[in-house]
Amino acid sequence: MTPENTLNMGQCFNWKRLPLSDEESLGSKFWIGVVDGQPLIVKQLPSTTEVASLLSTPVDPSRLRQTMLDYFQLDDDLPELYGTWSQKCERMRTVSVHLPGVRVVRQDPWECLISFICSSNNNISRISLMLQRLRATYGSFLCTVRVKNDRGSMGSSDGLVIDFNPPRHDELAAESEASSDDEGASPKRQPQRTPTTEDFVFPMFSFPTIDALAALEEAPLRSLGVGYRAKFIINSAKLVRQKSTEMGSDWLVSLRRPQVVCKQEPAETGEEEAAISSAIASSSHRRYVQQQLLLLPGVGMKVADCVALFSLDQYDVIPVDTHVWSIAVRDYAPELSNAKSLTPTIYEQVGDIFRDMFQRRAGWAHSVLFAAELPLFRGKLPAHLQEEMRQFALDQKKAKALKREAKSPSKPSKLSGQRDESDHASSPVSAKVAGKRKRGSAADETSTPTKASKVRRE
Question: The pTM is what?
Answer without folding.
Answer: 0.80
